[in-house]
Amino acid sequence: MRTREDVPRSGAEGCLFHSERKEEERLEQRVKAANRLFYDTVGAQYEKVDGRRSQRLERWLSLTLSTIRQNVPDGRLLDIGTGGGLVTRCAQGIFTSRIGIDLSTKILAANRGAFDWGITADADHLPFAAGCFDAVTSFAALHHLYRFEGLISEVARVLRLGGVFYTDHDMDTLFFTRFRPLLCLYRTLCNNAHSRYSRVQRGLTKELYTWTEWQGKGVDSSSLVPLLYNAGFNVTIRFHWFGLTPITDMLFGYRTYPRGWAPLFSIVAVKERDNSSFRELK
């Protein structure tokens, strides 16, 4: 299969394309560096300052992980962008091996009791052999990424056939677009995350925080589905409100809504086939 790089180009066009690729790579590295610095600085304060990890959310997540465990071959779990270890903590007693990876060494060290092993690693270059995990998760982490092709390629590689990739609690772009004025007002008046962090840790600038929230206007969930399909997955996606606040939990519960009418998307993708050519599609 021919890739974008295979297409013949004139000298000027080729130089422009090369320049664009270099700029994309520069931006991607800057996003990663910002996330590493931010969460190294926040470290042990993260869960306390974030303040959104309710017991109800943890019970719901444990039930979700239990359902996944019942449908995968074995009990080896990898959590990408593990942060404070919410997923691995909720997976205790469900999965026999719980590994969390993160760009930030310090946030892993501050939460070492939340997983069996915490490893500093880049989601685009996972330091694991092919087919060594039964489930891979990424919870409220996609909005920190510059792009998703590398992540999905690596998830497909390290998952065994029949394994599950589960991602949840990132905002969908369509919801953000539809309710942008209200969301911006809410973030300014009621949920100013940067202000909360800066009160705890000096030196956390608004610019740094903005770079960490690269997908702050939401993740385009519709673009993830074909990427996962091309990587060999059967994909189920749903949109919901659960786990944001006690009030929204009471109002909207566990129900599923049409896209654009709920902020969060949840993807469960089952690896049904190997597709070694997926990297050519990037």
Question: What's the SSE blueprint?
Answer:
Elements: H1 11-42, H2 46-50, H3 55-70, E1 76-80, H4 86-90, E2 97-102, H5 105-110, E3 117-120, E4 133-139, H6 149-158, E5 159-171, H7 173-178, H8 180-189, H9 193-200, H10 206-212, H11 221-230, E6 233-240, H12 246-252, E7 264-271
Parallel strand pairs: 1-2, 1-4, 2-3, 4-5
Antiparallel strand pairs: 5-7, 6-7
Quaternary organization: single chain
- The assigned structural class equals alpha/beta
Question: Within the CATH hierarchy, at the fold level, what is the topology?
Answer: Rossmann fold
Shape annotation: globular
Give a quick account of the main beta sheet: strands, pairing sense, barrel closure.
Answer: 7 strands, mixed
Strands of the widest sheet, in order across it, are: 3-2-1-4-5-7-6
Task: Compute the number of structural domains.
Answer: 1
CA-to-CA gap between the ends? 11 Å
Average pLDDT works out at 89
Compute the number of strand runs: 7
Q: Give the topology string: H per helix, E per strand.
A: HHHEHEHEEHEHHHHHEHE
Q: CATH homologous superfamily - what is it?
A: Vaccinia Virus protein VP39
| Radius of gyration computed on alpha carbons | 19 Å
Discrete helix count: 12
The CATH class is Alpha Beta
Give the name of the CATH architecture. 3-Layer(aba) Sandwich
